[in-house]
Amino acid sequence: MMRKLAVIMIAVAVAMAFAFSLAVAADAPGKIMIEKGKDKKSGVSFDHAKHAGTIDCFKCHHSAKAKEEIKDCFSCHGSDAAAPSVKDAFHKTCQACHKAEGKGPTKCKECHAG
Questions:
Q1: Nearest Cα to 90, choosing from 78, 79, 81?
Q2: What is the pTM of this model?
Q3: What percent of the chain is modeled with pLDDT above 70?
């Protein structure tokens, strides 16, 4: 009986976590074009919706403590002198994650297609 209850509780917890991630992903913007902070290379088309459904929001939106506090990247990067530049922030965060996960672009022309 205890084992059956434990299995049910785990199943409910997993279902709730999945439902929460879908709700968060539903609020996320779709594809966005990152033009701010570019130098000689083209801007980057970023599929935010694809990432929002699989990655914890706070991994990228690191200064927020709650979903309601999430701001776009450019409210700090590129506008606050204390924050890393847009280029440095995206390169460090995106490339490090893609390398660690073993998937996603890591070379210049894989993101800067134009």
A1: 78
A2: 0.63
A3: 79
